[in-house]
Write a structure and sequence with these properties.
Layout: H1 7-16, H2 20-124, E1 128-134, E2 141-146, E3 152-165, E4 179-184, E5 189-193, E6 205-216, E7 222-231, E8 238-240, E9 246-247
Antiparallel strand pairs: 1-2, 2-5, 3-4, 3-6, 6-7, 7-8, 7-9
Length: about 250
C-alpha cells in the first residue's frame, strides 16, 4: 500500500521543483514576513521603553518632590531649632533679668528694713544732754538729763573745770576723774557737783566748767556728749561756751 507523503515532504518536494522565479518570490515573501514581525517587536519594545521612561519620569518627579519635602522638613527643623535656641536664650536672659531684679529688690528691702530699724532706734534711743550749771562759784553743780525714750546705761561722767585768765581759752583735752552714775531713766535729771579749791585773783579769771559724759543705749550702741559752760563776767550765771558742746554722730556713735 502506497503511503501519502507528509506536508513537510510535500513542501520540500515543491521547493525542489521550484523555478528560479518561484524561489525568488518565495524568499521575498518570507523576508517581508520577518521584517513585519521584527517591526512589530520593535514597536512593542519602543512602547515598553516609552512606558518605562514615563514611569521613570514619574518616579523621578516623586523622588524630587520627596527630596524637596525632606529639604523643607530639614529647613523647618533648623528653623525650629533656631527658634528654640532663641527662645532658650530669651528665657535665660529673662531669668537673668529676674534674678537681678530680685537681687535689687532684696537689697532695697534690706536697705528699707535697715532704714526703718535706724529710724526706730533713733526715735527710741537714749539722749543724754547737759541742761544747766548752777550753784556757788567754787562748787558748781552740773545738771543733765535723758531726753530719749529709753534708759541710758553705764553712764559715766568726766567733770572738769579751769580758772583761766580773762581772754585765754581753756584746754579741753584735759579730762577729769570718772564718776560712774549707772542708769539714767528717760525724762529724769541727775546732778554732779565739782568742788574746787580757793583760787587767787578770781576777778581776773574766768571759770570754765566742762567735761564729757559717756553712756550706752538699749540697742548696744555707745554714745558720748561733751559740755562746756563759763561763768558770766558779773559772776551771776553760767553760759554755754561757743565750742565743746557736742555729741556723737548718728553714723558713727563711737
Amino acid at each position: 500500500m502506497h503511503e501519502r507523503p507528509t506536508k513537510s515532504e510535500e513542501r520540500r518536494d515543491k521547493r525542489n521543483n521550484e523555478t528560479t522565479e518561484q524561489k525568488a518570490a518565495r524568499l521575498t515573501a518570507e523576508a517581508t514576513r520577518w521584517i513585519a514581525i521584527f517591526t512589530v517587536v520593535m514597536a512593542i519594545v519602543a512602547a515598553l521603553t516609552l512606558w518605562e521612561l514615563i514611569q521613570g519620569g514619574a518616579d523621578t518627579k516623586a523622588l524630587v518632590a520627596a527630596s524637596k519635602q525632606q529639604a523643607n522638613a530639614a529647613s523647618d527643623q533648623a528653623d525650629a531649632a533656631q527658634q528654640f535656641s532663641d527662645t532658650a536664650e530669651d528665657i535665660n536672659g529673662r531669668m537673668s533679668d529676674a534674678v537681678d531684679q530680685l537681687s535689687a529688690a532684696a537689697s532695697n528691702a534690706k536697705a528699707g528694713i535697715k532704714a526703718t530699724q535706724d529710724t526706730m532706734r533713733l526715735d527710741q534711743r537714749a539722749w543724754v544732754a547737759v541742761i544747766d550749771v548752777h550753784g556757788p562759784e567754787l562748787e558748781p553743780i552740773v545738771k543733765f538729763t535723758n531726753t530719749g525714750r529709753t534708759p541710758a546705761r553705764n553712764v559715766i561722767m568726766y567733770p572738769n573745770y579751769l580758772y583761766n585768765l580773762v581772754g585765754i581759752e581753756p584746754d579741753f583735752n584735759t579730762q577729769g576723774s570718772p564718776k560712774r552714775l549707772g542708769v539714767l531713766s528717760p525724762g529724769t535729771e541727775r546732778t554732779a557737783q565739782n568742788k574746787m579749791t580757793s583760787i587767787p585773783d578770781l576777778d581776773k579769771r574766768t571759770l570754765y566748767v566742762f567735761g564729757r559724759i559717756t553712756y550706752d543705749d538699749i540697742f548696744g550702741k555707745h554714745h558720748w556728749v561733751t559740755y562746756c559752760l563759763r561763768l558770766s563776767d558779773d559772776r551771776t550765771q553760767y553760759q554755754f561756751c561757743e565750742e565743746h558742746n557736742d555729741t556723737d554722730s548718728i553714723e558713727n556713735p563711737n
